[in-house]
Amino acid sequence: MRTVLTTLGIGIGVATLLAIVGIIQGLNTSFEKQLSTLGANTIYVSKFPWMIRGNWWAFRNRKNLTLEQVAQVRQQADFITAISPAVMRTSDVAHGAEQISNVRVNGVWSDYLTIGNYEVVAGRFLTRADEEVNRPVAVIGADVAATLFAGISPLGQTVRIDNRPFQVVGTLGRKGKVVSENMDLSVFLPFKTFNATFGKGRPMQIAIAVADAGQIHKAEDQLVGILRRVRSTPPGQPDDFSINRPDTLAATYEQLTGALYAVATGVGLITLLVGGIGIMNIMLVSVRERTREIGVRRALGARQRTIILQFLMEASSVSAVGGLLGTTVGLGTAKLVSLVTPLAADVRPSTVLGGVAFSALVGLLFGIWPAARAARLDPVEALRYE
């Protein structure tokens, strides 16, 4: 009974630790996949940083980016391969009796297809001609097409955005979600058409693609210099714009999940510490109950290292069994959570091996004192023990 309870204590500790670790690893993997859809060689310049820290009003009071600044960047930057201004609003999009709310309506140039890493699965994307003549055309995301045009081709059909008609010229492949934004619930309009329809007062961002992801830091440094110059930012003053990259967002996310890792590790280690103390206690009791056995073995020629090895193997075996059970329960719990909730889980072989090996190590460490105590027993006194 003592052994079962101790094994259960070790199992609970390992299960708690691995369940949380499995969920966090799954979230990290899911987040990395989401960010990969934005491209590793993209830069987004905007008035606000993606992760706002500090005084929100300081960012709010910055000057908006302008098309003239976009033109200056395109003319002076050496590393970029595509550039596009981008503005956005959420609107209702309808076709016939079907309607979708909270759709991201974007005004962009034709280069945004390359920058945003989108794929056209039917029709075409926006062109420079659409921009120049201010055509009322739209390219729709996968979810918009599936909802409004179930069973029919959306090409050539008309969608109403806030009761304004736009002809569908293309549909995009699925991209999924990035953070909490559904990238498939989107509509893209020519930049000039967007401004003519919805007004020019919205903050604009500049989306940029770099030829080589290895040059992205050089491109960013050059971009900062160009923007400070064209925006007349005084020397010594901080930048009045924000450079956003997917990898910096990933780094911020890892910092947040790092705190969860620390909490999970702390909880698991405390529970394993309690389980380890339990193992040490049952081994000490086992040494006392088996004193005569130890005396007989020593009298028959067993060495001290043989006695130590026996008790260490027993302690580590009990702990490893608890670790194996805990690993099974913990990763099973993580998988169950991923099935019934939006949280993801990622079960890695290294996690399974690590859980079992670490629990066995705990048993080995906490079994040293009982094993040494058993090995130091005097054979004569041990044989007399009742």
Explain the overall architecture:
The protein has helices at about 1-35, 55-60, 65-75, 110-115, 130-135, 140-150, 190-200, 215-230, 245-290, 290-300, 305-340, 350-365, 370-375, 380-385; strands spanning about 40-45, 80-95, 100-110, 120-125, 135-140, 160, 165-170, 175-180, 180, 185-190, 205-210, 240-245. The protein is α+β, with helices and mostly antiparallel strands and about 375 residues long. Strands 2-3-10-5-7-6 form a 6-stranded mixed beta barrel. Strands 8-9 form a two-stranded antiparallel sheet. A hairpin with a 2-residue loop joins strand 2 (about 80-95) and strand 3. Helix 1 (about 1-35) runs antiparallel to helix 9 and helix 1 packs across helix 11. It is elongated and about 105 Å long.
- Helix share bin: 40-55%
- Class by helix and strand content? alpha+beta
Number of strands: 12
What summary fits the major beta sheet?
6 strands, mixed, barrel
Instruction: Report the span from N to C terminus.
Output: 23 Å
Can you count the helices?
Answer: 14
Compact overview of the structure:
The chain contains 14 helices and 12 strands.
Key features of this structure:
alpha+beta, two-stranded antiparallel ribbon, elongated, 386 residues, 14 helices
List the helices and strands and how they pair.
Layout lengths: L1 H35 L5 E5 L9 H5 L6 H10 L3 E16 L2 E11 L3 H4 L4 E4 L4 H6 L3 E4 L1 H7 L9 E4 L2 E9 L4 E2 L2 E2 L3 E5 H8 L6 E6 L5 H15 L11 E3 L1 H44 L1 H9 L4 H37 L8 H18 L1 H8 L3 H6 L2
Parallel strand pairs: 3-10, 5-7
Antiparallel strand pairs: 1-11, 1-12, 2-3, 2-6, 2-11, 4-7, 5-10, 6-7, 8-9
